[in-house]
């Protein structure tokens, strides 16, 4: 552009200097002028193109926020996928006693009936090594059990009554894998049943040590508890045996267990009999054990085919030959423990042939007799059928610890692997919003507990308590803010002369500028203790403040006529300041007396005792006041505009036919401005929904569902601020938090758009009037 | 009477008054809050008298020395451990700042006012503000230089004054020495480190390049030697300075009568509040205020200054302004001047408008996911592959915080600029076009200059919002204590990938994350006041600017 300017000047001087001279110079000048015009046109066009492109680009990049959030949330709905089954070249004989796959190490382990452990390379399928399980001489393998804590340890029982506990380790040396068995309790077998063949075996490891339970066809059950060295030499190594050993007999009556499960809670033991009945035994210090509950795991017509403890060792999954799989766990009600069938999945129309569980999520994989594969997350109740096995009937399945691979052994002795992609099994819309029965809970509940202190606890993703907390905070804030803001808007918008209004309005709007972190700080650390100590004064103040104002008004009305100041001037707001202060003072002074007179000395205690209301210091009352303070300006500003812009000739007309100002306001101005006030309320509500810092700092952030004014809450926004920095990128938790922020975004966006629509319509209407 | 009451009700006067009451209440809340912050925030720096008393509840009764911090009336039944003469309802207790945290473990204690005896304010009581462990209260009873007493320990009248002036001169000496040490550490050593790092990289480059580089390597080694020599020299100098600064110690007799020896170098400030007139108090007040604004934080942010937070906020906001202004103006110019008039543009305009109402935490989530994990992760993979898996840009930092806040404030700038562009009187545009100017020339020469103040308004509002916003920053870049400033004298000067401190987050941190809440509260109030003053000033200036602008257009239009 600058060149153009320069050119113009030169051009101007040239033409004036060339006046009256020969023609060619004039033509040149004209040509120059033409070129200049063309250049200007080009500039104009270029500017238009650039600004348009830039503007559209910038605006679309703001809108990118929607798409990006969608993009992060979308994988949650992807479900499970499985690749094609890959058949390993090795053919095995007999049925595996033990099958395990670890894609991390790239190794599969199979132990056959003779106790021979074979390691396979998962990628090539080659046999890496054979190693016999350390068995007592001449003894035959009779039973095996996996560690219910998911450590990868297993126990093997022999027909001479001895037991050995083992695990395996795949050391990678110079590119080759050399897996081998390890024996944390030593390779010598543990004598447990004095020569009686081990028929059923249970194993549990934990921070306290390992417990092994063994039973035979007759005689008492034996439980052995041994401490483990809690600090293994390195991360991948298996724990080592500690010194302390306790072994005791447990008499369980005439129950002959086929299978023993040791859940994570050391008080219980689960015994499965040959008839498919499951017994819950309390194995306290006393001997014999008390059988607390006995249930049939299947219906009368079906036969139990597979049973496993789920990850975490608190609940079990039982599958039968009618294609059903049911989750059971121990529920304690009124101090009585019983076994409850919590949910059931009708997976196939034929028998469940093979079943295995993941090590940390509540996910199991089941293969039917016809070869259908099902992946189920029990908590979220997500079921997917990602593939089908079209070989001979599957016998044993092994799901990798992280659930990313399934190893299958079929009746023809072939081993096959399936790559599985099931990253967000823990997510389902149902689990997000409706009541879910979690382990250790006596009944279904709505719980948000995404980051459990202990891996053994299942994560609980219910957005309901957070949404409830958000709405609770917003509603209490609106209860505080809406009357104040609208009343103030009515006064400044209608009664106040516009000169004074121009001064007062920015002052109230100043509240909006106050950083919410400061409001949250004052609410949490200044207001909360203050309210704690002066709850009664506050309640009295809420009563006395309006009363004081009314009294002041009455007093003014009783003043002699000549002193009756014109009340449209808006000076009341100054006159009322001392009145309010006085009323507040009176409330504060009266509070102790009223409290001791009516509420036995303490309103707080009275609320707790009389009404059973819990009282916490950082409660919804504080949030209501603090967040109300923050949303007042938003509501006030728009409501005031709505009232102010109602055309004056309307109210003048009403006044002319004899209505007083108040009547004009009630019957004319407010109905006309109602849509605007509504949109103000909506915008205020939208702000309250999304406000983060105030809720974060002024509540205890406990995700509970309780509408009690004196309890806290956790809102969606505060939850995001707390949890998202710590959540693992790409995990279900991370994406669910993104979903929560998408919900927030859409909700506020929709509410704001609706409010804007209402306002625009109103504006058009007034323009017509 | 009855009739007039009915009249009064019918006239609507009570309801009007109630409405007026709502306005008054709103204004009272605003000003009350500002007043509260002002009093608590600014009052904190005023030196308070230090009390000495005998506390009877202790067993045996002990002398306590401390500053009054707060008092409250509580029900006697809430106290359980203290034996009271009579159990009659309310008792008053007060919170005292006893200091001496290194000796007693905590520096605040609640005491019952009724059980204080012989309350007095001896003029000789001294407050020593220390670099670590908070304040120490007691009587200055001696000074030592290299272990030997400087002045005779005697109780004559003039001795106290002499000791004080001696202490102050030694404090000045220690301060000068400390300044020198800091200067050396900050500039000279940093320069040497930077030079060494440059040499190392140069060497690596030479080795990678191969070929005949023996000369260059030799030159390199020579330079390295000179750096090493410089460093050895500086190290000696530092050792010497550190020895010198440790020379003096002060002896303080504290509440329980025992003597405490404090290195003079550890004392930030020493004064006798009970003996000071208002002029001296003002001096201490100003000194503390200046330290607050220009010093580094001490003791987990509960003492000292907040320069890094102020600095970090400023740098972040400036960076954000640089990003948001051109983007916002271009988008606004497009929307107001070039976009076709139609429903699509209207929808876009409403959407942009509404984005200003979207919760800020959502922007934070977006910034974390999109900028940090996606864009930052990609940048790391492409340009900083050598330092992976330690992320360079794939972690919260200044750049991402500025970008996120730019996105957050973009609607504010767009809306304000568009309003300004729309308010430029049509007559001016028409005149310009009628003179033959193109649309762009009209825009560039006529419309934009006129709309410049409204752009400024938008920018000020954006800056005010950004300065006060904390929720998104918690996700994309702030930390409670940054080891270095985001803009300094070390290449590349502006450290876009570094995390920084922020005033708003400072308030959050002090209020909710501090282990020593009582000690953190005054600092939190002062920080909150500073933040509010900053944001309020910005907003008021925007309001004034906007008002003036409106007048100007009105004048132009007629």
Descriptive terms for the model:
heterodimer; A: 769 residues; alpha+beta; Methylamine Dehydrogenase, Chain H; MetI-like fold; 3 domains; five-stranded antiparallel beta sheet; 15 helices; flat; disordered N terminus; B: 558 residues; six-stranded antiparallel beta sheet
Task: Provide structural commentary.
The complex is a heterodimer of chains A (769) and B (558). Chain A contains 15 helices and 32 strands. With 769 residues, chain A is α+β, with helices and mostly antiparallel strands. In chain A, strands 1, 2, 28, 29 and 30 form a five-stranded antiparallel β-sheet that branches. In chain A, strands 7, 8, 9, 10 and 11 form a five-stranded antiparallel β-sheet that branches. A four-stranded antiparallel β-sheet of chain A has the order 3-4-5-6, with no helix packed on it. In chain A, helix 1 packs antiparallel against helix 2 and helix 7 crosses helix 8. In chain B, 61% of the residues lie in helices and 14% in strands. The two termini of chain B are 55 Å apart. Chain B has 15 helices and 13 strands. In chain B, helix 11 packs antiparallel against helix 12. In chain B, the strands form three sheets. In chain B, strands 6, 7, 8, 9, 10 and 11 form a six-stranded antiparallel β-sheet that branches. Chain B has a five-stranded antiparallel β-sheet with strand order 4-3-2-1-5, with no helix packed on it. Chain B folds into three domains: 122 residues, no CATH class; 100 residues; 251 residues, MetI-like (MetI-like fold, Orthogonal Bundle). Chains A and B meet through helix 2, helix 4, helix 5, helix 6 and helix 7 of A and helix 1, helix 2, strand 2, helix 7 and helix 8 of B.
């Amino acid at each position: 552009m600058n060149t153009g300017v320069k050119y113009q000047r030169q051009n101007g001087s040239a033409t004036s200097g060339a006046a009256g001279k020969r023609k060619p110079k004039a033509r040149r000048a004209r040509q120059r002028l033409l070129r200049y015009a063309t250049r200007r046109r080009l500039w104009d066009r270029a500017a238009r193109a650039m600004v348009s492109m830039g503007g559209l680009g910038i605006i679309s990049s703001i809108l990118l926020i929607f798409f990006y959030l969608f993009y992060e949330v979308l994988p949650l709905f992807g479900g499970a996928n499985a690749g094609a089954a890959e058949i390993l070249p090795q053919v095995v004989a007999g049925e595996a006693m033990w099958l395990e796959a670890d894609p991390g190490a790239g190794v599969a382990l199979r132990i056959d009936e003779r106790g021979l452990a074979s390691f396979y390379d998962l990628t090539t399928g080659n046999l890496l090594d054979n190693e016999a399980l350390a068995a007592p001489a001449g003894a035959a393998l009779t039973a095996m059990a996996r560690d219910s804590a998911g450590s990868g340890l297993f126990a093997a029982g022999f027909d001479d009554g001895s037991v050995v506990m083992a695990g395996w380790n795949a050391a990678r040396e110079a590119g080759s894998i050399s897996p081998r068995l390890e024996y944390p309790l030593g390779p010598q077998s543990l004598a447990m049943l004095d020569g009686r063949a081990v028929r059923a075996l249970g194993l549990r490891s934990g921070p306290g040590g390992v417990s092994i339970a063994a039973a035979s066809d007759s005689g008492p059950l034996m439980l052995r508890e041994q401490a483990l060295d809690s600090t293994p030499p390195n991360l991948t190594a298996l724990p080592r045996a500690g010194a302390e050993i306790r072994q005791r007999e447990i008499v369980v009556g005439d129950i002959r267990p086929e299978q023993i499960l040791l859940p994570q809670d050391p008080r219980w033991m689960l015994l499965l009999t040959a008839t498919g009945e499951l017994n819950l035994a309390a194995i306290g210090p006393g001997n014999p054990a008390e059988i607390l509950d006995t249930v049939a795991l299947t219906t009368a017509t079906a036969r139990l085919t597979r049973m496993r403890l789920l990850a975490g060792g608190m609940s079990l999954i039982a599958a039968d030959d009618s294609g059903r799989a049911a989750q059971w766990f121990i529920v304690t009600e009124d101090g009585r423990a019983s076994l409850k069938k919590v949910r059931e999945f009708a997976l196939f129309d034929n028998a469940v042939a093979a079943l295995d569980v993941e090590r940390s999520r509540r996910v199991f994989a089941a293969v039917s007799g016809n070869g259908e594969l099902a992946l189920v997350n029990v908590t979220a109740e997500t079921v997917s059928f990602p593939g089908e096995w079209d070989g001979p009937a599957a016998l044993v399945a092994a799901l990798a610890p992280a659930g990313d691979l399934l190893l299958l052994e079929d009746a023809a002795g072939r081993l096959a692997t399936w790559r599985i992609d099931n990253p967000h099994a823990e997510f389902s819309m149902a689990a997000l919003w409706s009541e879910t029965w979690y382990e250790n809970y006596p009944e279904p509940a709505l719980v948000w507990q995404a980051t459990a202190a202990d891996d053994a606890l299942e994560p609980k993703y219910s957005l309901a308590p957070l949404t409830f907390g958000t709405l609770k905070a917003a509603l209490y804030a609106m209860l505080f803010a809406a009357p104040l803001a609208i009343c103030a808007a009515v006064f400044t918008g209608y009664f106040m002369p516009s000169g004074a209004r121009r001064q007062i309005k920015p002052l109230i709007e100043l509240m909006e500028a106050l950083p919410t972190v400061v409001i949250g700080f004052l609410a949490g650390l200044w207001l909360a203790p203050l309210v704690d100590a002066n709850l009664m004064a506050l309640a009295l103040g809420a009563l006395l403040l309006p009363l004081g104002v009314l009294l002041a008004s009455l007093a003014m009305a009783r003043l002699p006529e000549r002193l009756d100041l014109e009340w449209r001037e808006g000076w009341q707001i100054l006159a009322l300041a001392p009145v309010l202060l006085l009323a507040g003072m009176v409330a504060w002074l009266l509070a102790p007396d009223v409290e001791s007179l009516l509420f036995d000395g303490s309103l707080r205690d009275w609320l707790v005792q009389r009404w059973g209301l819990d009282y916490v210091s950082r409660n919804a009352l504080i949030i209501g006041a603090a967040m109300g303070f923050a949303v007042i300006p938003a509501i006030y500003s728009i409501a005031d505009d709505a009232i102010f812009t109602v055309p004056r000739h309307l109210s003048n007309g009403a006044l002319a036919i004899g209505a007083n100002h108040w009547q004009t306001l009630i019957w004319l101005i407010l109905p006309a401005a109602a849509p605007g006030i509504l949109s103000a309320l909506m915008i205020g509500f939208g702000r309250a929904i999304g406000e983060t810092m105030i809720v974060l700092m002024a509540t205890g952030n406990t995700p509970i569902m309780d509408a009690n004014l004196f309890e806290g809450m956790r809102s969606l926004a505060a939850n995001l601020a707390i949890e998202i920095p710590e959540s693992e990128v790409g995990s279900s938790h991370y994406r669910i938090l993104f979903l929560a922020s998408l919900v927030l975004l859409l909700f506020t966006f929709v509410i704001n758009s609706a409010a804007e629509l209402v306002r625009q319509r109103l504006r058009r209407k007034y323009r017509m009037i | 009477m009855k009739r007039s009451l009915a009249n009064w009700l019918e006239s609507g006067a009570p309801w009007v008054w109630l409405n007026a009451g709502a306005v008054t209440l709103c204004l009272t809340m605003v000003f009350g809050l500002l007043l509260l912050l002002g009093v608590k925030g600014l009052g904190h720096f005023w030196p308070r008298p230090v009390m000495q008393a005998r506390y009877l509840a202790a067993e045996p009764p002990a002398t306590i020395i401390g500053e009054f911090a707060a008092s409250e009336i509580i029900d006697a039944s809430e106290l359980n451990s203290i034996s009271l003469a009579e159990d009659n309802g309310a008792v008053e207790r007060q919170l005292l700042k006893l200091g001496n945290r290194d000796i007693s473990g905590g520096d605040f204690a609640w005491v019952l006012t009724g059980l204080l005896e012989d309350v007095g304010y001896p003029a000789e009581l001294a407050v020593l503000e220390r670099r670590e462990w908070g304040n120490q209260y007691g009587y200055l009873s001696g000074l030592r230089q290299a272990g030997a007493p400087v002045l005779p320990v005697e109780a004559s009248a003039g001795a106290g004054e002499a000791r004080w002036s001696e202490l102050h001169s030694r404090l000045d000496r220690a301060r000068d020495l400390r300044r020198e040490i800091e200067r050396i550490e900050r500039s000279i050593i940093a320069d040497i480190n930077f030079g060494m790092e440059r040499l190392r990289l140069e060497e690596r480059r030479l080795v990678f390049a191969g070929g005949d580089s023996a000369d260059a390597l030799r030159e390199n080694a020579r330079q390295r030697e000179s750096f090493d020599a410089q460093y050895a020299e500086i190290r000696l100098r530092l050792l010497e300075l550190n020895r010198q600064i440790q020379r003096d110690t002060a002896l303080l007799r504290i509440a329980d009568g025992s003597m405490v020896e404090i290195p003079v170098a550890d004392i930030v400030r020493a004064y006798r509040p009970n003996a000071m007139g208002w002029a001296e108090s003002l001096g201490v007040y100003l000194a503390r205020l200046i330290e607050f604004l220009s010093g580094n934080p001490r003791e987990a942010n509960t003492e000292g200054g907040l320069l890094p937070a102020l600095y970090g906020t400023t740098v972040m906001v400036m960076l954000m302004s640089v990003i948001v202004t051109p983007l916002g103006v271009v988008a606004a110019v497009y929307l107001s001047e070039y976009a076709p008039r139609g429903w699509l543009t209207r929808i876009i305009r409403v959407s942009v408008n509404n984005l200003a109402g979207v919760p800020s935490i959502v922007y934070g989530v977006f910034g974390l996911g999109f900028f940090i994990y996606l864009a930052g992760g990609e940048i790391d993979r492409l340009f900083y592959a050598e330092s992976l898996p330690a992320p360079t840009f794939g972690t919260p930092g200044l750049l991402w915080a500025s970008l996120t806040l730019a996105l957050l404030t973009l609607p504010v700038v767009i809306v304000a600029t568009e309003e300004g562009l729309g308010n430029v009187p049509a007559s001016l545009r028409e005149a310009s076009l009628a003179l033959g100017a193109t649309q762009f020339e009209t825009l560039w020469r006529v419309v934009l200059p006129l709309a410049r103040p409204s752009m400024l308004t938008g920018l000020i509002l954006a800056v005010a919002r950004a300065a006060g916003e904390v929720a998104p920053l918690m996700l994309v870049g702030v930390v409670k204590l940054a080891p270095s400033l985001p803009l300094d004298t070390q290449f590349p000067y502006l450290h876009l990938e570094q995390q920084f401190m922020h005033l708003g987050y400072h308030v959050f941190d002090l209020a909710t994350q501090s282990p020593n809440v009582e000690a953190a509260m005054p600092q939190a109030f002062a920080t909150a006041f500073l933040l509010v003053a900053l944001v309020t000033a910005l907003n008021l200036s925007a309001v004034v600017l906007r008002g003036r602008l409106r007048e100007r257009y009105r004048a132009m239009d007629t």
